[in-house]
Design goal:
It is a single chain. The protein is an all-alpha fold. It has two domains: 6-177, no CATH class; 183-461, no CATH class. It contains 19 helices and no strands. It is globular and about 70 Å long. The two termini are 16 Å apart. The mean pLDDT is 90.
């Protein structure tokens, strides 16, 4: 089920809100668990049993770690949980990639499994792993209520595309959370902001991306429009989902971590990744990079640690070699930035921001390509090496048609709109304007949904 759909907005969400706030406190997690499983089963009826099995397995692994009398016993059960999670990912996400790579390298014809990828598996397996690792480390207490643990793993606001919520961050709120009209209002406002990002901006750019791929009159300018449109599309699509998840969590009394902090304002690749998909970056830092030794090791070991983390980051995003190369390219830039920091720090901010945007744009061209051939063709097209004209009439038509959307995207990717909203928030005019804008936003988004002009969230495929 999509957040940006009529069934969710006008049937599912009202039903869960009504029942959730009607039942006593001790039943609220049960309501969330039940509706979360329904939410997941709506799109994945077969794999809801995989979700339930995952909940049970990790719940009992956590219990076993807590009951183990020796460190060796604790480590055994942690290992079981790690093996289970990696096995799930290996079978459903990476098996065909591995087999296909072997077939291509050795000329074999090993049959593919061709299993459908369970939606959100990359997110909820990482959440389960964070639970057992934190219990093993002593950073989190064992959860002895399977309903509460099941609600944590399957919580529908962030189940499908994050942010990756660690158990330790919501452990207290799972058992003792408060609700207020102020939190509900703030949560609904944040949800509507995300809904507008998705439907009114991201989905409009998705149309342009499809037009570009179907066009027979591509030009250098059209390649640049495509690359920039994808940058804006993926940002508003993914950050829009995160806004909706964080907003819904707030309604139900949870305070999820932020996942985006205007990444296109960054002055280095390192800063970009501290602002983009922050929950994933911090997860790899705390559960992979630091345990490997982080940067407190010899230079060659640090290079190894960096390459491993970014290779895994690429693989997490998708089971294909272009994702692996995409991740490793960021590793190279991060290492170059570290070694060249004294020189980079003397470069004017404007040039540094342009450098980041160019690197990120080229990275996303690789990220969005179906294979290396298409990626190379797209990069060549950007620099006039693809035997296409500089500009065509079709390009000018779409440039005029999407000019306003590009301007909105550029402005919306900066903090300016948020800052203006914050200034208006505490004024009488702002207090009047906010509910009017929220109602108008819901009506406009609903009109687009009724028209059927929407697309799935991009990160559903990960």
């Amino acid at each position: 089920m999509l957040f940006s759909s009529i069934p969710f907005l006008f049937y599912f969400l009202p039903a869960v809100l009504i029942l959730y706030f009607l039942v006593p406190t001790k039943l609220k997690n049960a309501v969330l668990l039940l509706f979360s499983l329904v939410f997941y089963a709506w799109g994945e009826p077969k794999y809801v049993f995989l979700m339930i099995s995952t909940i049970c397995l990790f719940f009992f692994c956590g219990i076993a770690i807590g009951k183990a009398a020796t460190q060796k016993g604790k480590k055994l059960w942690l290992t079981v949980s790690v093996v289970i999670s990696l096995a799930l990912l290996a079978v459903f996400k990476y098996a065909d990639f591995a087999v296909g790579s072997v077939n291509a390298a050795l000329g074999t014809s090993i049959p593919l499994l061709k299993l459908a990828l369970p939606i959100g598996i990359s997110f909820y397996t990482f959440q389960c792993l964070s639970y057992t690792i934190d219990v093993y480390r002593g950073d989190a207490a064992v959860q002895r209520n399977i309903i509460s643990f099941g609600a944590y793993v399957s919580l529908f606001p962030q189940l499908i595309a994050g942010p990756i919520v660690r158990y330790v961050d919501v452990a207290r709120e799972l058992d003792h959370r408060t609700h207020s009209w102020n939190d509900i209002a703030l949560g609904l406002r944040r949800f509507l902001v995300g809904l507008c990002k998705k439907i009114l901006i991201a989905d409009r750019f998705a149309v342009l991306l499809n037009v570009f791929r179907d066009s027979s009159q591509q030009s250098v300018l059209f390649y640049w429009m495509y690359a920039i449109a994808f940058m804006l599309h993926i940002y508003f699509d993914f950050s829009g989902y995160s806004d909706m998840a964080i907003g819904l969590g707030r309604v139900f009394g949870f305070h999820f971590i932020e996942n985006f902090n205007y990444p296109y304002m960054s002055r280095s690749i390192g800063e970009f990744w501290r602002r983009w998909h922050m929950s994933l970056g911090s997860w790899f830092r705390d559960y992979v990079y630091i345990p490997l030794g982080g940067n407190r090791v010899k230079p060659l070991r640090w290079v190894f640690n960096t390459l491993v983390v970014w290779m895994l980051t690429g693989l997490w995003h998708g089971a294909a070699w272009n994702f692996v190369v995409w991740g490793l390219l960021y590793a190279v830039f991060l290492m170059l930035e570290k070694w060249g920091k004294p020189i980079i720090d003397r470069i004017p901010d404007l040039l540094r921001r342009c450098y980041v945007l160019l690197v990120v744009m080229l990275g996303f061209v690789l990220f969005n390509a179906v294979d290396f051939t298409q990626a190379l063709s797209d990069v060549k097209g950007l620099f006039g090496l693809n035997d296409v004209p500089l500009i065509t009439k079709e390009t000018l038509y779409y440039l005029r048609s999407y000019a306003v959307l590009f301007i909105i995207g550029f402005i919306g990717a900066t903090p300016h709109v948020r800052n203006i909203g914050c200034r208006l928030e505490n004024t009488k005019f702002g207090a009047f304007l906010e509910p009017v804008l929220m109602i108008a936003a819901l009506l406009v988004c609903t009109a687009y949904l009724v028209d059927g002009s929407f697309s799935p969230f991009l990160y559903f495929r990960f």
